[in-house]
Amino acid sequence: DAGVTQSPTHLIKTRGQQVTLRCSPKSGHDTVSWYQQALGQGPQFIFQYYEEEERQRGNFPDRFSGHQFPNYSSELNVNALLLGDSALYLCASSLASSDTQYFGPGTRLTVL
Amino acid sequence: AQSVSQHNHHVILSEAASLELGCNYSYGGTVNLFWYVQYPGQHLQLLLKYFSGDPLVKGIKGFEAEFIKSKFSFNLRKPSVQWSDTAEYFCAVSQGGATNKLIFGTGTLLAVQP
Questions:
Q1: What pLDDT does A78 receive?
Q2: Which pLDDT score is estimated for A99?
Q3: Which residues in B lie closer than 8 A to residue A48 (C-beta atoms)?
Q4: Between chains, do B44 and A56 touch, taking CB under 8 Å as contact?
Q5: What does each C-alpha distance from B36 to A7, B46, B75, B103 come to in angstroms?
Q6: Average pLDDT over all residues of chain A
Q7: Can you tell me the distance from the alpha carbon of B74 to that of B57, in angstroms, rounded to the nearest whole number?
Q8: Which 3-22 residues of chain B touch chain A by CB within 8 A?
Q9: Could A40 and B106 be called an inter-chain contact, meaning their C-beta atoms sit closer than 8 Å?
Q10: Could you give the CA distance from residue B94 to residue B85 in angstroms, rounded to a whole number?
Q11: Distance from CA of B108 to the nearest CA of A (A)
Q12: pLDDT tens-digit profile of B8-32?
């Protein structure tokens, strides 16, 4: 049973560029949440997708957007990258009926 | 706004020592409580969770945590740590239901010396 997978593993971008990160949820899960983990900090909630709609959103600017596909996989897009966007981006999946989230390995984004 | 505090940022123990990591949250309503662990080079894994019922919950690898509602606390314990417990530990809270986003503490880095 495959767990949550994310791609790519690492990514280097320059300021002003745009980036897309991808996530495949654990088999059977229908809800995907995205978190940003800055160095030395705990993960911070960005948003959550269910039934291809953004269901909740954290305190992140509109530069952060997402999408969920009919197969429940998800993308996180960040526009106009800033140095401060450098972080580990985590995807977590769950069942809509459950409060337990399972995390993927993350994508390490470095903005130069 | 909800917040989670982990007071111990860095803990160093010798093998066989007992462990207690503190976690306090600020929210007056019903909460779900979690401890996640991140071993070196690995992803976040669920260690244990509390939703309701017995406030003493047992997790994997001999860990347990006690929910004390009056103190807004959910401390993690292990009677005897091993070198393999070296990891970063995160406490997290959610309100449950449709708003099940997780609010994390800043983490506690545990180093166990052999």
A1: 98
A2: 82
A3: 100-101
A4: no
A5: 22, 5, 12, 12
A6: 95
A7: 10
A8: 4
A9: yes
A10: 25
A11: 10
A12: 899 999 999 999 999 999 987 888 9
